[in-house]
Amino acid sequence: IILRGVTIGDNSIVGAGSVVTKSIPSGEIWAGCPAKFVSKLEDYIKKSIKHNTEQEFLEAYDIVRQHRKNG
Asked: Which of 33, 17, 38 is nearest to 25 (CA)?
């Protein structure tokens, strides 16, 4: 649920079922009820490198880069 007047920035992720009560800046991950800051998207991707193969990381990075390019 996104309350009236609230905006979600480009390249941001909101967890399923979250209640967004205030605007979310670009490139952040928020979740919960009410939604709270979880992580910067770039930090999350960097942490993911430890658990994923290099190919999976490059695919995720390309997705983020494409969103920025098209945004």
From this structure: 38
